[in-house]
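Reminder to self: tokens first, then the designed residues, so the page reads top to bottom the way the pipeline ran.
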């Protein structure tokens, strides 16, 4: 049968099946796009393609819970559309992405959602879902949020405490938006920075003659994330941020009868802000993301350790690829450098190298932070994020011993710069199977454009709302659902 056929029969033999809670020696049989059997000495029909996974790991396909594809941001169009972005995801071992829809102020959330869906349906190679941005507030937004959750398969909304006059909500609007999320069973995602003080800090930096990429870190100090995180905890039920000060806030809250879940990004868990001071302006500008990378060289190791210890739950790429020419729009003014960097293709390998190889997490925790936890948070589990009979056949044969050297010259993702250039990473996806389709094998991509599908995310995820219901039964307890990451 054709490699792209969802009815293809596949038997993965001799590997070690890794879920977030257990590793076992087992074979995996796939048919009709689903995992049919997991175990030893399986009885299967003839005609199956046999994949030898001896000495390899068999893991759930990655779920990248924050990507930006076919998006215009800060006067620049991202270098990846839904075809190139999802192709890169599959080549890197991720079989599902959750992309962002960011309507302009005053624009219809529903119309922007439908526009992005049309692009994605025609181009995506793997399963995808959509977060929808709440970039302004009013009765129309509230009504459209209800429609998106009730009829369109959306269960998460992105809100911003930064990007003043563009994306930022006032505290009262944030409260109303989060209250609506709770009522309709959606997940509230919040970019937590003090937008007012970022605005003032930016003006001060420019007045001092600071115009290069280092101005990004200088104007957005770490304490502005910590303050916004604390403020969002006070008024909301879910917050996203990255830095260690903010982690401390969240951990302190979690021991006070609060429920905390956290998300960070690949760049923040792997790189430091010293890149902003690189003598090559293009190199420095390529690292401009928001919130910015931090100067403390210990921050990435700290975040990786928190991922390994279940304090941070998810790592996303926050993929938003721009090229050097686009970044150069801010050559004389750092505020005009588009925020974003590529990473959807490298997320899995970099986390394996810096997490598992470095001894900060085991193989089960790797599966949790790259796949299973995102599936649980967004109500995809166990159809996604787990190798078990009945689950979607999103499976990766992972070679923990093989290595590859990351380079922009060989990447499938967009952009002409790679933040991890020259890094040698152990952990390579040898085979990627998406909904039972053999889409990548030994670096050869065989998936057709538009063969992916929109995957509706159901409201009221048990992973979050069961805790909420239970905690509300406890006298004097407080429930806050928090996620922190960057965008």
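Designed residues (487 positions):
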């Amino acid at each position: 049968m054709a490699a792209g056929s969802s009815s293809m029969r596949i038997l993965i033999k001799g590997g070690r099946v890794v879920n977030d809670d257990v590793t076992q020696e087992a074979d995996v049989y796939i048919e009709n796009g689903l995992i049919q059997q997991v175990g030893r000495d399986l009885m299967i029909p003839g005609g199956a393609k046999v994949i030898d996974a001896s000495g390899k790991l068999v893991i759930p396909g990655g779920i990248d819970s924050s990507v930006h594809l076919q998006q215009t941001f800060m006067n620049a169009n991202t270098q990846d559309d839904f075809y190139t972005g999802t192709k890169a995801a599959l080549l890197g071992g991720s079989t599902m992405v959750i992309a962002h829809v960011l309507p302009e102020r005053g624009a219809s959330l529903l119309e922007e959602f439908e526009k992005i869906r049309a692009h994605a349906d025609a181009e995506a190679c793997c399963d995808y879902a959509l977060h929808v941005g709440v970039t302004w507030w009013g009765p129309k937004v509230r009504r459209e949020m209800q429609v998106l959750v009730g009829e369109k398969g959306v269960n998460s909304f992105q809100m911003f405490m930064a990007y003043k006059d563009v994306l930022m909500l006032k505290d009262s609007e944030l409260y109303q938006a989060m209250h609506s999320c709770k009522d309709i069973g959606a997940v509230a995602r919040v970019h937590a920075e003090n937008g007012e003080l970022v605005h003032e800090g930016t003006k001060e930096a420019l007045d001092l003659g600071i115009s290069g990429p280092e101005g990004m870190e200088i104007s957005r100090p770490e304490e502005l994330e910590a303050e916004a995180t604390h403020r969002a905890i006070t008024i909301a039920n879910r917050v996203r941020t990255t830095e260690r000060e903010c982690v401390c806030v969240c951990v302190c809250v979690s021991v006070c009868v609060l429920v905390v879940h956290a998300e960070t990004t690949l760049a923040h868990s792997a790189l430091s802000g010293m890149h902003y001071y690189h003598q090559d302006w293009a190199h420095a500008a390529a690292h401009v993301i928001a919130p910015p990378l931090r100067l403390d060289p210990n921050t990435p190791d700290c975040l990786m350790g928190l991922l390994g210890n279940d304090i941070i739950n998810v790592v996303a790429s926050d993929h938003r690829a721009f090229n050097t020419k686009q970044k150069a729009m801010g050559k004389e003014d750092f505020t005009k450098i588009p925020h974003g960097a590529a990473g959807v293709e490298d997320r899995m390998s970099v986390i394996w190298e810096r997490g598992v190889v470095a001894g900060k997490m085991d193989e089960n925790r790797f599966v949790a932070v790259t796949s299973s936890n995102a599936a649980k948070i967004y109500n995809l589990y166990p159809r996604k994020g787990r190798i078990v009979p009945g689950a979607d056949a999103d499976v990766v044969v992972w070679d923990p011993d093989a290595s590859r050297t990351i380079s922009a010259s060989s990447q499938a993702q967009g952009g002409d710069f790679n933040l991890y250039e020259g890094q040698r990473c152990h952990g390579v996806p040898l085979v990627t199977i998406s909904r039972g389709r053999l889409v990548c094998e030994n670096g050869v991509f065989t998936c057709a454009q538009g063969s992916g599908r929109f995957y509706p995310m159901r409201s009221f995820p048990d992973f979050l709302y069961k805790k909420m219901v239970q905690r509300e039964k406890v006298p004097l307890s407080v429930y806050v659902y928090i996620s922190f990451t960057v965008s």
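Confidence is low (pLDDT under 50) at residues 1-5, 237-245, 248-258, 476-487.
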